Amino acid sequence: MEGLDFLNALAGMEFSAYVAIAFLLYGIRQVFNFKKEYEALIAITLGLVWVTLEALGVPVHIILQGIFIGFTSFLLTKGIKFGEQKLTKNK
Questions:
Q1: Domain enclosing residue 21, as ranges
Q2: Angle between helices 13-32 and 39-55 (to 10 degrees)
Q3: Total structural domains in the chain?
Q4: How crowded is residue 54: how many other Cβ atoms within 10 Å of its Cβ?
Q5: What is the pLDDT of residues 74-90, one digit of tens each?
Q6: pTM recorded for the entire structure
Q7: Which among 60, 63, 28 is positioned nearest to 42, based on CA atoms?
């Protein structure tokens, strides 16, 4: 029965939480450049924050949309910085 629950989680909104937390962890790691030893602790903390927000009644789609907007902004900033470096390097 547990295997079926896992498959349902993969197909449903619960799996979106795992992906969102993974993206958040990646973004945080890029910005703060912390040691790999702290990655599990930060992932657990993000998971606890996620569950707390859900328990407080914040809809999951709001959380996901906020993470998407934040991560997109992060990637856009990285892209602009990369482009600036390429332009200055070519001069």
A1: 2-90
A2: 130
A3: 1
A4: 13
A5: 788 888 888 888 778 77
A6: 0.59
A7: 28
